[in-house]
Amino acid sequence: MTNVLYYLAIGALLVTVGGIGWAMLINFAQGSLAIVLGWISALMLLALGTAIEEYHK
Hints:
It contains two helices and no strands. The protein is an all-alpha fold.
């Protein structure tokens, strides 16, 4: 379960990287939204994965 959350967090960071590219090349407002949402999602998923991992010790 925690591995799935970590992989989702990596995916959220990829969304952040895509948002950076989108902001530079296409539309700054939409890219900024992707950056913020990707970063927040990654942090939440990492925290949830860590909490579940600690709970099962």
